[in-house]
Amino acid sequence: MATKRLLPLTRFTQPLRRPYHSYTHPAPPGPFNEIERSILSSAAKHIPSHGFTSTSLALGCSDAGYIAASTNLFPKAAFSLVEWHLLAQREALKGEVDAIAGDGAKPMGVGAKVKELTWRRLMGNEEVIHRWQEALALLASHPSTSIHELALLSDEIWFLSGDVSVDTSWYTKRASLSTIYAATELFMTTDKSVGFQETREFMERRFEDGRSIGSTLGSVGQWVGFTAHAGLNVLRSKGVRI
Amino acid sequence: MKLSIGSRSTRASLQTPLYDFLAPSLIITPRTRKHFSTTPRTLSATTHNESSKPPLSQPHRTPKAGPEAATNTAPPSKPLTQAQRDFLTSALRVNQAGELAATLIYTAQTPPIVASHPHLRPLMAHMYEQEAGHFKTFNGLLAKHRIRPTAMYPLWSVAATALGWGTAIMGREAAMACTEAVETEIGGHYNGQVRVLLDMIDSMESKGQEVGEDLRELVDSIRKIRDEELEHLDHAVENDAQKAVPHELLTGVIRAGCRGAIWVSERV
């Protein structure tokens, strides 16, 4: 019983694992092998019509040229499709960042890039948005995977935007972006406006909230730091040996 | 028989330089210790993998981060194993935490020390600048290799400032004893890392794998930083670190604290 209780806890710490990312060595193999990738990418085409279901998966198997029993490769069945969607969309962001860089005449700041990448990731759900609540239901029953994926996504967005902070703000940045993303994604499932205009506005408001909280905290911190430093210097100027 | 003894002694002499961080606290004459560093002054001597590496040209590399870092890709080789990645992750994280603490210790020590001993101003500034350079190096490496900084960041900041300020208030000797204790631990810690990295490179080379520029550069910069830390140790001893009043107690407590902080930072 004790080990059963502990197991999910250790899996919850997974989001905090950020192993060394090497540039001179290839990345270790991902969660899906070559066959699984081909089946899942074919199955993804059926999601808009058949949803995140075993039916899509079976159709994907036959499209990729495997027998229908190949769905046995995926013990998690429909949830594998959700995992695949999250993985594929996250990997696609690498290409998006080049598109962003090529867009504007003047280079974008980190904040603007984060916002734009978040938006493009949300638009990655556009095709399947009417089926997305099925995926959310599946994700809710696999909390450790969903938290892990969310953490990986926000880490990816901050990294691709060129953020290099490695202090406590590393944590606050990722936490706030994860919150904004999860909230906006949920909002998007009920958005019926043209071109997801309302979702865009919702996201802008969330970023603005985050920015104002951040700048308030920053100002308070600056004031406290300045006052403490000034007080210390006054004491020193009076000859106190501190 | 004679041959086997000879070969063992040569092997021992090849390995002992790695342990020379132990020397400073045992030998009393501080001047001679500067030559104990294992980084070869001339590239002719010492171990096998050092002869082939180019001398370090720039003092502190600032690695690129973000997407532009991904552009300089080398020919493909085998992926790093999980154990290797875990080691590199925790090593770089703990190094950044250590250098953060070091910069804060010197920042906190400088005003009280300089107020009572103005002649120490250049030394404190010099040591601070070197630590700030190390901190910058590891910050860059963490960002480049996408490693999470330690979760204890705020705690280490407070603890390091308190340690620096507290020892500086106790006087010059105590402040120097603090430096002595910290740098002794750090020197040993870096030596351990260099040893593991050289082993890693050795095993990669023996399997015919591509080692990669990143790992070689990492060994070089850790070596160089280690040498600068040991130089601080020399300066501390020259400035009467061992005349601090409860010297054994003070250094013992600080060294235990360092080891604890290293242990924690490697994990969270």
Give the helix/strand class of chain A.
mainly alpha
Q: Of all protein chain pairs, which has the greatest interface, and how many residues does each chain bring to it? A: A-B, 33 and 48 residues
Termini gap of chain B: 50 Å
The number of helices of chain A is 10
Helix/strand order of chain A: HHHHHHHHHH
Subcellular location (chain B): Mitochondrion inner membrane
Family (chain B): Belongs to the COQ7 family.
Function (chain B): Catalyzes the hydroxylation of 2-polyprenyl-3-methyl-6-methoxy-1,4-benzoquinol (DMQH2) during ubiquinone biosynthesis. Has also a structural role in the COQ enzyme complex, stabilizing other COQ polypeptides.
Pfam families (chain B): COQ7
Features:
heterodimer, A: 242 residues, mainly alpha, 2 domains, 10 helices, disordered N terminus, B: 268 residues, 9 helices, oxidoreductase (chain B)
Describe the protein.
The complex is a heterodimer of chains A (242) and B (268). In chain A, 68% of the residues lie in helices and 0% in strands. Chain A is mainly alpha-helical and 242 residues long. Chain A folds into two domains: 28-75; 80-242. In chain A, helix 2 packs across helix 5 (78-103), helix 8 (143-160) packs across helix 9 (169-188) and helix 9 (169-188) runs antiparallel to helix 10. The relative contact order of chain A is 0.08. Mean pLDDT of chain A is 87; it is low at 1-15. Chain B is mainly alpha-helical and 268 residues long. Chain B has a domain at 88-268. Chain B has nine helices and no strands. In chain B, helix 7 packs across helix 9 (247-267). Chain B starts with a helix and ends with a helix.
Structure in a nutshell:
Chain B: One of its GO terms (molecular function) is 3-demethoxyubiquinol 3-hydroxylase activity. The complex is a heterodimer of chains A (242) and B (268). Chain A is mainly α and 242 residues long.
